Amino acid sequence: MAADAAAPTMDLTRARIPPLQPKPGSYALLLRPSTSGWVTIGRLGTLTLNGGCLIYVGSAQGPGGVAARCRHHLLARAKPHWHLDYLRPHCRVIGIWVHYGTTNLEHDWARALATLPGATHPLPRFGASDCSRCPAHLARLPRCPSARTMRRCFADGRLIRLQDTD
């Protein structure tokens, strides 16, 4: 069954927005698929959801910083803007790794994720259509990494665990 056909909607009254600071920084969203099947990601192509853990890396250097960007990603969007907006209705955000600072770490993090055992890029160019350094800013792992593994992979930062965001 195609996941596109039955995209769950998010109850915004139950959304828990974590305490993030409106400062520039980099972030990684840990996502657990809530459906299986195919999801159309705009004009980029089709992504297959089949379990595991998805990790999306990004940066937020503009107004509102990490807090504004993660708030955007946590809430359902009627009109998708970024690749992640197409995927989010089909996944639960179970954690956010955050590092505050003006250095853009998303490229280093994307490369570091690719070195983890079992890591794949489920859809080339996802989140990286304007990036010449990375094959994608989305990785799939057989299971979600521990905070210890995240720290080893990303170095500085902290993991914010979320309960139910959907």
Give a quick precis of the structure:
Helices cover 19% and strands 27% of the residues.
Spatially, the strands of the biggest sheet line up as 6-4-1-5-7
Question: How many helices?
Answer: 4
Major sheet, described briefly?
A: 5 strands, antiparallel
Output the structural class: alpha+beta
Radius of gyration: 15 Å
- Low-confidence parts: 1-15
β content, as a range? 25-35%
Q: What is the number of domains? A: 1
Average pLDDT number: 85
Which overall shape is indicated by the principal axes computed on the Cα atoms?
A: globular
Kindly state the percentage of residues in helix.
10-25%
Helix and strand sequence: EEEEHHEHEHE
How many distinct beta strands? 7
First-residue to last-residue Cα separation: 21 Å
Describe, in plain words, how this protein is organized in 3D.
By secondary structure, the chain is α+β, with helices and mostly antiparallel strands. The protein has one domain (16-161). It contains 4 helices and 7 strands. It has helices spanning 65-74, 83-87, 106-114, 147-154; strands at 25-33, 37-41, 45-49, 53-60, 91-100, 138-141, 158-161. The protein has a 5-stranded antiparallel β-sheet. Strand 2 and strand 3 (45-49) form a beta hairpin. The longest helix has 10 residues, at 65-74. Mean pLDDT is 85; it is low at 1-15.
